[in-house]
Specification:
The structure holds 2 protein chains of 2 kinds. By secondary structure, chain A is mostly helical. Chain A contains 11 helices and 5 strands, in the order αααβααβααβαβαβαα. The chains are: A mainly alpha, B alpha+beta.
């Protein structure tokens, strides 16, 4: 008699196991549980953005570069970015190669935002060449305005101390670790203090564009260095 | 140098305008683009096939043949092109390297030919892109092995002055070199075979004598077997000792696998000799005899295939282990299930779970001995599931596993290879990269020296050895230094400075107290370029106590501490040093900032003595007037400045 009890028990075990598997399968069919760890969704392949710049004549009209210079610039640009636009990662990459000892990515980020005037996340050749036109061929006023835009991270028309500190830290990051004298933690902050002392005329804690331009125009060093890169191309 | 992105250098330099308003010091001058060449097309004639490219493309890599002036050797005046008598097909990838910055290895190309081309054009193979690097390295290794095989044959030739020991070793390792070696080889092989056969035959029951039970031959003809065993062991012992004697490195020989097998093969005999008729340990003695079967492994010296098999098993060990593990899991699961299913039936063989293991293994491997069978219905159901899954578990994955083996094995090997290669690759690339960083530091020193030479009136028409690109890049880095009022130094210098800062015994004030001074002081004290074009050398003098100089031609800032490390680097600037020149340490409130050395030029120092206390206006004096005015004026402000005179270098 014991055997029959065990026999039925054995059959019961079978029954229970079958029931459990069936319910799991049902739930799976209903989509409540999924078995595979990674839900395989076909990611939409982002079509590679291809961009063709405006014609040479238009660019010539809009910028202060000659035809030949535009040709040289475009060749270099297209060589590095065959698709015609630079995204932020590539930008950071390229810029970091010029500063092997430090970390140029933060400053490159700010620079990218300064060049990407229409804020669409990528720098096309037009943006690039417009920016360069201001920097290399513009008047001192325009250059100063460009620099102000660079420092004004949130584009609200004022440079606050925090924004300046960010920029300063980014610049110091590019130096890297091996400097002489050794970089201290407070150095960027001190530098920001000096900057604000020089620029912030009414001591309200922010620098407006007029204060900025005024102070810069009164500083001989700055005025002189603005002309430094004029023969770059 | 970021040669790959050379085209973006103008952009990087333009973007440096963003630093200008932040900087407190004047910027250095930009290097002049003296030869403002228009970008011209260069024609490269490679064995008749003409390639054309821009000059600037080739200039990107100035340390290669095409990027440097070395190509002028190949210039053909009549046809105005550069002619190279090389393979045009291989040249394609080389030229593409200049264009794209990535070097690719064309698969159809012979590896040694490609290597030669790279060497000719001065390109190091380590910069081959990731897509092609593996292939390149594989082919290179194959080639090397092929060359090694050739060398092996050379190795077999008897060198004239080999000692007796070396000859013996060669005879052991390569039996086909001499007849004696061959004889020895066959003799040992023969005796190994004899030994194995005797071990086997020993246990066979020979015909029955008048004792009822069959005795194994070993017990019948004890003496004969003992003699044969002795003979074999003697031969093996002699062989082992001879190998030991002849081995070039005895320690390494003793650790090798083959010698361990040899020892294990002969040891049981000797142990048996030692402990004869000791009943206590005879059990262990019997076990030892099992080890005699290891003699069969001695055949691996005679057979290449056996060695390969052993190596393969060793290398696939991890995959086999995983297979075993998954099988074990399945066995345990089914054994448990079968045990509980069969618990009910009487006189069941499934007495415990371990007992069920045997059933599960036999069923899953489809052996099916039949010594244990389930009797209950549930047991039979699970038993059939077990055998079905056994088929699947074992038979199906085996081909998959086999192919996975080779794939994963090669992948692992590739990963290991890549890891091994990566270190050397990265090291070489790092050297090249640090070369560029060091190039900047080097050029700073060179630049200072060349300026010094210029000013002493030597008309050095020498061009700067570095390309325009490099000089522009260095100018950019220089501007950054000026903006942040810190200098780039190399690693060791940095570490030294770091240590010095830590070790300073002076009551050094942290920079925050002397806050305004430090950037201005260090920055402006390094104004080394001659600012002749500038009408007024204006340094923002925030504090009267700042040290400044007039038109100093050369300055090096040294850290005066035990032994001047920087001295070695500026040793060239010692050339024109006057012996009694003074370097002064300007220390504010006990903190050593910098020591400034002035390098004088032949015209004597105008007013050395009272240079110490000159008022600040002196600086506006001289740029246009003097050819040189090398002394430093350190304005002594109020008390609290200790100026220490340190004698010249």
């Amino acid at each position: 008699m014991l055997n029959s009890i065990w026999e039925t028990e054995g059959l019961q075990t079978v029954g229970i196991v079958v029931l459990v598997f069936a319910s799991i399968k049902l739930l799976h069919l209903l989509g409540l549980i999924s078995f595979s760890e990674d839900s395989v969704e076909d990611e939409l392949e982002l079509s590679t953005v291809r961009h063709r710049p405006e014609g040479l004549e238009q660019l010539e009209a809009q910028t202060r570069f000659s035809r030949k210079e535009l040709q040289i610039l475009y060749r270099g640009f297209k060589n590095e970015c065959p698709s015609g636009v630079v995204n932020e990662e590539t930008f950071k990459d390229i810029y970091s190669q010029f500063f092997p000892q430090g970390d140029a990515s933060t400053y490159a980020h700010f620079l990218f935002n300064a060049f990407d005037t229409d804020h669409n996340g990528s720098v096309s050749f037009e943006d690039f060449v417009m920016g360069l036109s201001i920097l290399l061929r513009g008047t001192v006023q325009e250059k100063l305005i460009w620099a102000f835009n660079l420092y004004d991270i949130n584009k609200d028309g004022y440079i606050s101390k925090e924004e300046m500190l960010d920029i300063m830290k980014a610049i110091y990051d590019m130096m890297g670790k091996c400097t002489y004298p050794v970089l201290k933690e407070e150095t960027p902050r001190q530098h920001v203090e000096i900057f604000f002392q020089k620029m912030d005329k009414n001591k309200d804690g922010v620098v407006t564009i007029d204060e900025f331009i005024d102070s810069c125009q009164n500083d001989e060093n700055i005025m002189r260095s603005m002309h430094l890169f004029e023969n770059v191309l | 140098m970021a040669t790959g992105v050379a085209a973006w250098l103008p952009f990087a330099r333009a973007a440096a305008i963003g630093w200008m308003p932040v900087a407190n010091c004047p910027m250095p001058n930009a290097p002049g683009d003296n030869s403002k060449r228009q970008d011209e097309l260069i024609i490269l004639n490679i064995s008749g096939r003409r390639f054309q490219t821009w000059r600037t493309t080739l200039d990107r890599y100035p340390d290669t043949l095409l990027g440097s002036t070395e190509k002028d050797f190949f210039y053909n005046e009549e046809t105005k092109e550069y002619f190279f008598d090389r393979d045009p097909d291989a040249f394609r990838s080389i030229l593409n390297f200049y264009r794209t910055g990535k070097l690719h290895y064309p698969r159809h190309e012979c590896i040694s030919a490609y290597d030669e081309e790279l060497t000719f054009f001065g390109i190091i193979p380590e910069i081959i892109g990731d897509c092609c690097y593996e292939e390149y390295k594989d082919r290179k290794r194959e080639n090397l092995e092929r060359l090694q095989d050739d060398q092996e044959e050379i190795k077999d030739m008897k060198l004239p002055n080999m000692s007796f020991r070396e000859t013996m070793w060669r005879a052991f390792e390569n039996p086909h070199t001499s007849t004696m070696a061959l004889v020895f080889y066959y003799v040992t092989g023969f005796f190994i075979a004899i030994s194995v056969i005797t071990n086997v035959v020993e246990t066979v029951p020979c015909g029955s004598t008048f004792n009822q039970k069959d005795m194994p031959c070993g017990e019948r003809y004890t003496v004969a077997f003992f003699c044969i065993d002795t003979a074999c062991v003697m031969i093996f012992t002699v062989e082992y000792l001879l190998r030991l004697f002849a081995a070039p490195s005895r320690y390494r020989f003793m650790r090798s696998v083959m010698s361990i097998i040899d020892v294990v093969a002969i040891l049981p005999y000797y142990i048996g000799l030692v402990m004869t008729n000791n009943e206590d340990v005879s059990g262990a003695f019997v076990t030892l005899r099992v080890f005699r079967v290891f003699r069969i492994f001695k055949f691996s010296r005679h057979s290449q295939g056996l060695r390969i098999l052993g190596y393969t098993l060793k290398s696939c060990a991890s995959e086999l282990g995983f297979l075993l593990f998954s099988l074990t899991m399945a066995i345990i699961i089914f054994a448990t299930v079968m045990f509980y299913a069969e618990k009910g039936s009487s006189s069941t063989k499934f007495t415990s779970i371990p007992a069920s293991f045997w059933y599960t293994i036999v069923t899953m491997t489809t052996l099916g001995y039949g010594d244990m069978v389930p009797k209950t219905i549930a047991g039979k159901i699970f038993g059939s599931i077990c055998s079905l899954s056994g088929v699947l578990v074992i038979a199906l994955p085996v081909p998959v596993i086999v192919s996975n083996f080779s794939r994963i094995y090669h992948q692992n090997q590739r990963a290991d290879k890549r890891r091994a290669q990566k270190k050397t690759r990265m090291a070489r690339i790092r050297i090249a990269k640090s070369g560029s960083a060091n190039a900047f530091l080097q050029s700073k020193r060179n630049g200072m020296l060349s300026e010094l030479l210029e000013l002493t009136g030597k008309d050095e028409e020498e061009q700067k050895s570095m390309s325009l690109l490099e000089s522009q890049h260095h100018h950019l880095l220089h501007c950054l230094e000026k903006t942040t009022a810190h200098e780039f130094v190399d690693e060791q210098m940095y570490e030294q400075n770091f240590l010095e800062m830590a070790l300073q015994t002076f009551p050094s004030h942290s920079p925050s107290t002397a806050s305004h001074d430090s950037p201005a002081v260090t920055c402006c004290s390094r104004k080394e370029r001659r600012n002749t074009p500038l009408p007024s050398a204006d340094l923002p003098p925030p504090h009267p106590s700042s040290a400044h100089q007039s038109t100093l031609q050369e300055l090096s800032t040294i850290r005066i501490h035990c032994g001047d490390p920087l001295l070695h680097s500026t040793s060239r600037s010692n050339l024109n040093m006057k012996p009694d020149d003074s370097c002064r340490i300007n220390s504010k409130s006990g903190r050593i900032t910098t020591a400034i050395i002035s390098l004088p030029t032949p015209p004597a120092l105008p007013s050395d003595g009272d240079g110490l206390h000159r008022p600040p206006k002196r600086r506006s004096h001289p740029p246009t007037g003097h050819p040189v005015a090398p002394s430093i004026q350190t304005t002594a402000s109020s008390a609290g400045i200790n100026i220490v005179k340190v004698s010249a270098l």
